[in-house]
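Bench notes, afternoon.
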Amino acid sequence: MNLSLFELPRWRRPSVPAPGTSLVTATETFAGPVRAAVECVRRCLEERPSVGASHAHVLASRWREEPRRPSAPSALQAAWALVSMRIVGRSVGALPRDASLRDAEAWFVGAIPTPSCLSDAVVEFADREAARKLETIEYDDDLRDLLPYVLDAHGPGSRASVMRDPRTGKARRAKKDAGVFYTPADVAEYIVRETLEALPPEVDPPLVLDPACGSGVFLKAVLDLATGRRPGLDRLEFVERRLHGIDIDPLAVDAACFVLLHECLRSPHRGPAAPPWSQWHRIRCNLHVADALTCRVVAPAGHQADDAAAQTDLRTRLDNCYVEPLPPPGDTPSDLFSRGLPLGDVFPALAEGAHAVIGNPPYAAIGPRDDAAALTQRFASLPARSRAAWDHFPAFVEMMWRLARPGRGSSGMVVPLSLACSRRAQMTATRRAIMRSRGRWRFAFFDREPHALFGEEVKTRNAIVFRADASGRPATETTVETGPLRRWTSRQRATLFETVDFTPLPGVPIAAGVPKLDGDVCARAYRRLWRQTVRLRNMCATIDSCPPQDAAAQVSRLHVFVAGTAYNFLNAFRSHRDLPEPRAPWSSSKLLRLGLATTPEADRVFAILSSRIAYWLWHVTADGFHVTRSFVLDLPVNDKLFAGPAKHALADLGSRLWQQVQAQRIISINGGRQTVSYRPHASEDLRDEIDALLIEALGLEPAFQDYLRKFTRTLLFVDEHDDTRRRFTDHFNDGGKPWPE
């Protein structure tokens, strides 16, 4: 599906983090007054027992039975609905500035004779006050761009927002518990574009499913991309026929429906337009309140054609008359959420699966469930032995093939980086399931510093994962392509996704982790190291942990210490000597202490851990922050690889390097605790010699040394045009002069 004609708007979009901007801050300009208006209306509606029936008359699903969740009480849903009606009506130019909520609902319902109206229960004062608050915002392109975030009922919930305003703490806890974060528009658009372009030309337009649709960021991105390709597109028809979403939160489903309605009302209609109420419900047929963990694709039961005809008939009736809501469910919400849900029963068009499965799944713990045993049978990523530690998102990764159409499916999701590097049982099981799933898998990785994929409020490391099985018949094997752990600054974000590419990784299983590789030279080096049988642990006489102050008190030449975290270098050192009096208590994080039998062996271990190869391998296999005991001990290097002269040369280089890096000692106070680290970057000539010895001993190609120099420089500089990072450039250009502390 060629989407190259799509062009982003030319103004700086507030839905995309940029230098000096924030998605949360931009959203709050609009969302603060909106939530205040909702709260004003909610307080009024809470006192009216009839609001539940009124909400059902106006907005309840007309297509399939859904649970009524206690977490979304009718008064809150009704308040958000009334405010959303007015925002959408004002934004599309259908309502004047002085419109009340009653006016907004009258416009929304049109000539449809609903038995009752939500606004009937809103007293005049509350109506006027809510409308006044809603007129403090601008109904401009920025609002239209941010609408999915503005209508997000959770509000701001980031750590940074709580630091700025403690009153947002409740929202943050709610979002953290649900695993909900704002997905920037450029992330959604990149995933949508890559996912749809992997489909064959005959699948145009595709059937799309977002199993955790939230307020519709990804579904809006699909509609925007399709509209960019076909300027005359009938948006309502496209949404009805092609876009489908599931979410466990009724407020989110309502919001997504208003977001898509807003986009449809902005396009010219052919002939007389149905009232917004009718269009809203036509869209609502494709959005369903459900627990996606219960959804599955089963063999079509033969009634999908009848269901599709019934859905078409329902939409026709919705255009012309009032349609009664479905009766309240007889089951409890937990029964409805735990019951297995064949996808075709809700969306007849998806009886055989979706062409495209997209989204940003929840990053939260699953918690206790009555159907846990059934989920263990359904999902390989939910192993019984780790039930207490289940996360949601691995099951959604499985949906990338379980809910996709075999031979005609493509998927894309953004998930935590732990999918690639965590050794937890659930993540290992997920990667094994990926290897069994077949199809073409691609992994793109994104660091959290200097800037993060979700913006500065949500500092996470992420992976964007794609899967394609679109050759016309189900794939018979699994192929894996991977990329580096990318760092960037906000000024580079406009071109970030244009630079993403992938490196094939044949012949290497990924159960232990997905390596983050950049190019064929890098991939060949990784495969060579992966096949090594020697390990650094075999050089060590003793292995234990110690508090950091022991490295200051102990001056033995037979130890090498390794800190438990890293960023631009692995913090390996021999001991702390001649330290000034501590300015704060020592950090409570323990060090890994390696005891060696002789001083030359300690020198060699220090040289190995200070090499670019060790740092590169850590960056390729770890999470970009933690330096685990297993990583250090399993480094595929030890004395057995070196002949006598090379062994002596490596020890000499390690000794000389330690003498030099002591001048690069950094004493830091973080959280009131002192840490000490030693930068090796001022000794590039010695690291060159160490790398050359290791490359020869490991049988790696000489071109890998040039790659390592470029790799290190790229990670240090990130953006050479950024003045705040100029000290790295100056350091390299001045021949390795010491950096100021």
